[in-house]
Structure formats: C-alpha cells, structure tokens
Amino acid sequence: MKKEAEKKEKNIPTRVVSGMRPSGKLHLGHFHGVLENWLELQKKHECFFFVADWHALTTEYEDPSKVPENTLEMVLDWLSVGIDPVKSVIFTQSGVKEHAELYVLLSMLTPLGWLERNPTYKEQLVELKNRDVRTYGFLGYPVLQTADIIVYQAGMVPVGIDQAPHIELSREIVRRFNHLYGEVFPEPKTLLTEAKKVLGTDGRKMSKSYDNSIYLSDTPEVIEKKMRTMVTDTARQRKTDPGNPEKCPFFETFHKLYSDESTIEWVHEVCTTGAVGCIECKQRVIPKVLETLEPIQKKRAELEKDKASVMETLKKDTERARIVARETMEKVRSVMSLG
Ligand code: TRP
Ligand code: SF4
Fold first, then answer.
1. In the predicted model, is pLDDT for residue 69 greater than 70?
2. Which of 47, 232, 307, 320 lies deepest, with the highest CB count within 10 Å?
3. CA of 19 to the centre of ligand 1 (A)
4. How far is the CA of 295 from the centre of ligand 2 (A)?
5. Ligand 1, CB cutoff 6 Å, lining residues
6. What is the pTM of this model?
C-alpha cells in the first residue's frame, strides 16, 4: 500500500500486464472486447502484452503444432490494430523462462484447495469433454498466470469477468508469499474490461468455436457478406413485418458499436414500423465497419509481407521483458535462500 502511495506522489503510472492465448486470427469480439482496451492502456501505462503459449498447452498438449502459426497470426492482428512494440513490450510467454521458474516456486506455497475451488477449473472440467484436462498443468493454470503477472511486479491486470477469479487467486498467492518471505510483490489489481456485447452471425456470442465470427483479416467482401446474412429479429419474416431492434443481434452488435445517435433513432423508427427491410437497415452501418477496418487491414497487408521482421520484433521485445523478469527473480531467489 505504501508503495502505491509513493507511486501516486511521484506520478509513476502503474505497470500493466496481460496475456492472450494464441488462438490465431482475431475477430471483432477480440477487437472491441480486449484490444481497444489495450490501446487505451498503452497510451498511459507501461504495458507488457504477451502470447500465453504455455497456457495454450494446458488444453492443446496433444497437438501443439498449430501454436506457432496461431501466435504469429495473433501478433499480426495486435500490431495491425496499433499495439505498438516500442511503447509496449510484446512477447511470448515461452520466451521468458523466468515465468516458469517463478511458477515452480509459487507452486510450493499454493494450497491445493485454492486451485480445486477455482470456478473456471470446475467449469472447464465439465465443458471440455472432448479433451482430458485432468492434468497437473491444468489445475496449476492460475499459478502460472500469477507468475506471468508478478514477475513484472504488475499493478494492474486488464481481464474480462471470466478471468477475475484467477486474479483474485493471484492476490492470495502474493499475500502468502509476502507473508512468508517479506514484501516482494505488489498485489495486482483486476482492471475489469467492460463486457461489450459482440454477437456473431448466428446471434450467439462471437466465438471461433461457433464458426460465427467476423475476423479482422476477412476481406471487405467477406465482411459485407457475413453482415448481410447475419440473423436479425426473427419477427421480421417479411420486409413489412414490424420488428424490435432490442431483439435484433445485428442491431445489438453493429448499430450499437458503430452508428451515431441519429442513425439509431432512424433504425428504431423504420424497424418498429416495418418501413424498410433489414438489408437496407444493415446497409446504413456496413460502410462504417469497413471504414474502421480499412487502416487495420492495410497495416496487416504490409506486415504480412515481412513476417520475419515481425518475428524479430517479438524476439527483441522478449529480451526487454526478460530484463525485468530477471531482476525480479534475483530478488525472489535471495528471499527464498536460493543461490
Ligand atoms: N488466462 C488468460 C486467458 O485465458 C490468459 C492469461 C495468461 C493472462 N496469463 C495471463 C491474462 C496473465 C492476464 C494476465 O484469457
Ligand atoms: Fe435488426 Fe435493422 Fe432488421 Fe430491425 S431492421 S431487425 S434493427 S436489421
């Protein structure tokens, strides 16, 4: 706490750490749900953003062959939207071995009960039926996540609500560590990312596994087609049937995220009276979406031409991350009486 106060006095911004599992090309759900938030944080804070490739292995250990490609695709998207490898540190978790060392040490003092009680663990055991996740690594997922965060002495972790229990666990582990060995780590705070409703073409939450996603790297033609065929209020069978925007997944996502107030008013008017069809309503916002994505796609096309230099950037930033991580580990070894 004292440290926080000092920081405020000196106006040192809090360090931010966040990771994403390498899921390949990112979709609009990632963009509006996570990346826009990272872009804001990058303006004010020192940010460490990493590809959680070890975490991916907790579920992909049987076939890890896609991980490198998924890492590159995801990083291409990060850079395309404007995550800046000069301002922020962008790297892969597996490139900084210190995460693993700290993970081992933290595992010594983390009670099993804390992990077994973890709600995401219990959920996933039920949900991931097609994979055997009754592994030691999967149970220890939040311990590794804790190491990821505190190895950089981060003060703030931007995550969605689903990850909040993990950060809570991190705080408990930190308290236990500090109690045993002295005040080494600040307690990381959860910076809850506002849950934006981004629905996919079938009206369910946009998700790669539902095959309903619009990807940042889809061509404008594909994006337009996906938007035109996206489900709307089912009450609107014919063009003249009145509808309700609040029951329309297309409206929920695209008009709410991209349209100005007067367009939204117009939609309410024409939808509820059945004055215009869905295609015309959609056409009002499709160009806005394409316009927003255009510079991102341009940047991606450029980066794709030189993937080697993207890999080089990752490598360089991995070294930047290691400098901080090494320093932390020296301190940790010392307080734990290790050489
Ligand atoms: N568990 C996170 C997820 O699935 C990814 C992650 C790994 C992470 N380590 C982290 C997020 C550290 C924040 C901080 O989304
Ligand atoms: Fe949705 Fe617009 Fe169709 Fe109404 S008119 S159902 S808001 S797409």
1. yes
2. 47
3. 4
4. 28
5. 17-21, 52, 55, 145, 148-149, 157, 159, 163
6. 0.94
Q: Are residue 7 and residue 78 in the same domain, yes or no? A: yes
Q: What is the dihedral of CA 157, 159, 165, 168, to 10 degrees?
A: 10
Please indicate, yes or no, whether residues 42 and 167 belong to a single structural domain of this protein.
Answer: yes
Give the DSSP per-residue string, 217-252. TS-HHHHHHHHHHS---TT-SSTTS---GGG-HHII
100-119: pLDDT as tens digits: 999 999 999 999 999 999 99
Tokens of 11: 């106006």
For residue 46, what are the domain limits?
2-198+307-335
- Give the number of whichever ligand sits closest to the CA of residue 151: 1
Q: Within the chain, what is the greatest distance between any pair of CA atoms? A: 77
Which pair of tokens denotes residue 94? Answer: 């597996």
The CATH number assigned to the domain holding 131 equals 3.40.50.620
The confidence score (pLDDT) of residue 13 equals 66
Minimum CA distance residue for ligand 1 atom 6: 19
Inside any domain, residue 211: no
State how far the Cα of 48 lies from the Cα of 87, in Å rounded to an integer.
Answer: 10
User: Same domain for 60 and 137?
Assistant: yes
Task: Identify whether residues 20 and 96 lie together within a single domain.
Answer: yes
Q: What is the pLDDT of residues 207-246, one digit of tens each?
A: 999 999 999 999 999 999 999 999 999 999 998 999 999 9
Question: Within this chain, do residues 168 and 117 fall inside the same structural domain, yes or no?
Answer: yes
Q: DSSP characters for 319-330?
A: HHHHHHHHHHHH
Cα 283 to averaged position of ligand 1 atoms, centre (Å): 37
Q: How many domains does the chain have?
A: 2
Task: Note whether 156 and 232 are same-domain residues.
Answer: no
CATH of the domain at 222: 1.10.240.10
Quick check: 289 and 227 in contact, CB under 8 A? Answer: yes
Same-domain pairing of 240 and 111: no
Answer with the residue of higher pLDDT: 124 or 80: 80
Q: Is 230 in the pocket of ligand 2 (CB under 6 A)?
A: no
Q: Indicate if 110 and 169 belong to the same structural domain.
A: yes
